[in-house]
């Protein structure tokens, strides 16, 4: 039996007090909009979308994780580290986000092994977001 996968969404636990501020941050900063909002089993679920990117916010948690200021030091402890959004032009995206008050915690940097340039930011809660500019993998390059 073969199982086929495609990406659907990523989910974040947020505190009820942080839910509306998180929706606002993703809306104003990255252009996401609310697709669905509902309550089930004592938790508020909000799906926010932009293009093919979908994030599920689950408000029921009571403790917030400490934010990070540096992508390299954030790799400890073992946990979901980040999610990645593809951008057409990394320099333009970084510049626009800078105008919106978003600071980088890593990059921009080139990663030759994957043929991409990347940078890292955090959202209002400290969740790490990688921005990746499409590139050419070394195995795809013609000699």
UniProtKB/TrEMBL annotation:
Keywords: Metal-binding. The keyword Metal-binding applies. PANTHER family: METHYLMALONYL-COA EPIMERASE, METHYLMALONYL-COA EPIMERASE, MITOCHONDRIAL. Gene3D superfamilies: 2,3-Dihydroxybiphenyl 1,2-Dioxygenase, domain 1. It holds the Pfam family Glyoxalase_4. Transmembrane segments: none annotated. This is VOC domain-containing protein. It comes from the Bacteria. Residues 6-134 form the VOC domain. The keyword Nucleotide-binding does not apply. It comes from Actinomadura napierensis.
């Amino acid at each position: 039996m073969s199982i086929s996968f495609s990406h659907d969404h990523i989910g974040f636990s947020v505190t009820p007090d942080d839910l509306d501020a998180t929706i606002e941050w993703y809306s104003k900063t990255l252009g996401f909009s609310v697709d669905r909002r509902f309550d089930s089993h004592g938790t508020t679920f909000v799906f926010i979308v932009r293009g093919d990117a979908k994030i599920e916010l689950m408000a029921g948690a009571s403790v917030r994780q400490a934010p990070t200021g540096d992508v390299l030091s954030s790799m400890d402890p073992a946990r979901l580290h980040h999610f990645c959004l593809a951008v057409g032009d990394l320099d333009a995206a970084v510049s626009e986000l800078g105008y919106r008050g978003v600071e980088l915690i890593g990059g921009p940097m080139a990663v030759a092994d994957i043929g991409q340039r990347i940078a890292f930011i955090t959202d209002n809660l400290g969740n790490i977001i990688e921005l990746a500019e499409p590139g050419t993998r070394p195995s795809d390059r013609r000699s």
